[in-house]
Amino acid sequence: MRVLIGRMWMRVLAGVALSCAALTACDRPAPPPRIAAAADLRLALTEIAAAFERDTGRKVDLLFGSSGNFYRQLQQGAPFAMFLSADEEYVLDLAKAGRTTDQGRLYAVGRLALIAPKASPLKVDEGLEGLRKALARGDIRRFAIANPDHAPYGRRAREALEQAGLWQPLEPHLVLGENVSQALQFAIDGGAQGGIIAWSLVQDPALGARADFALIPAELHAPLRQRMVLMRSADETARRFYAYIDQPPARAILDRHGFALPSAAN
Questions:
Q1: What is the C-alpha separation between 184 and 51, in angstroms, rounded?
Q2: How does pLDDT run across 199-249, given as a tens digit for each residue?
Q3: Contact indicator for 183, 177 with CB cutoff of 8 Å
Q4: With a threshold of 0.85, does the pTM exceed it?
Q5: How many H helices and E strands in the chain?
Q6: 195, 254, 225: which is closest to 67 by C-alpha?
Q7: For position 262, what pLDDT does the model report?
Q8: For residues 234 and 74, is the Cβ–Cβ distance under 8 A?
Q9: How much is the pLDDT for 168?
Q10: Backbone phi, then psi, for 150, in 5-degree steps?
């Protein structure tokens, strides 16, 4: 009898322990959704996420990198709830493959910037004439851009240089960043004489004391149409964040960081 009662108590205690564990798991808040974002959004989206948290009390986990690398990860089922790409074709391809909720929305159009450290012999200008002259003088030993193989800003940088007739003489001097944010670091801290990066990244006030920069004409390259989309695993917080980016507070931040804003029809 004592053995039977002991076994019954063991079962009761085990049931209580399982119930407590289940309640603890239920009480534990869900982790913030992981958001894959193009590196050119590092300043703007960080600010938008902070505003979103203030307005809603909800957090998101931002990860920045090259759009092409995120695209390949998402093709393989990476656990991101949302993707903000610097090239809309990556989003449209994921939608065709059935990995997203829809085709997403255009959220911004990016621009390119020529940048050079203050001590560089490269004099920046919109028409890239300073770069042409620095190359002719032999002053350019290293020049940074994002890797054109998987970074949209790298592809557009190559297009701009090709249009200006500078790609061939500059190619032996190129230093390729994994993404446009790393290209910025190479351009100002990596011993380079300059680089082509995202205009949105030169809006950092601290950068003005260290480097000179100029907006590259949009006519020199194809548009940087940037599209965002929800993945099928998106939770309520991710859906709210997606909607928030189309709201006036977020659009004002994107505008202030140098992005062109699409109309709601896009």
A1: 26
A2: 999 998 889 899 999 999 999 999 999 999 999 999 999 999 999 999 999
A3: yes
A4: yes
A5: 10, 10
A6: 225
A7: 87
A8: no
A9: 97
A10: -140, 0
Q: Could you tell me if 141 and 174 are in contact, meaning their C-beta atoms sit under 8 angstroms apart?
A: no
β partners of residue 198: 112
Q: Which of 219, 179, 180 is nearest to 196 (CA)?
A: 180
Q: How far apart are CA 15 and CA 22, in angstroms?
A: 11
Q: What is the DSSP letter of 100?
A: B
DSSP 8-state class, residue 44: H
Measure Cα distances from 114 to 34, 44, 51, 127, 137 in Å: 32, 19, 30, 10, 18
Collapsing DSSP to helix, strand or coil, 256 comes out as helix
Say which DSSP state 185 is in: H
3-state class (DSSP) for residue 179 = coil
Q: Which domains does the chain have, with CATH numbers?
A: 34-109+224-256 (3.40.190.10), 110-220 (3.40.190.10)
Helices (H), 28-112: 42-56, 67-75, 88-96
d(CA 201, CA 185): 11
The contacts of residue 193 (CB under 8 Å, 6+ apart) are: 116, 117, 120, 121, 122, 134, 139, 140, 141, 142, 143
Q: Alpha-carbon distance 66 to 190, whole Å? A: 19
The answer to whether 79 and 9 have CB atoms below 8 angstroms apart is no
Question: Which two tokens mark 106?
Answer: 């255009």
Phi–psi pair at 261, nearest 5 degrees: -105, 130
Question: What is the predicted pLDDT for the residue at 84?
Answer: 99
Residues of the chain with pLDDT under 50: 1-5, 12-13, 16, 20-25, 264-265
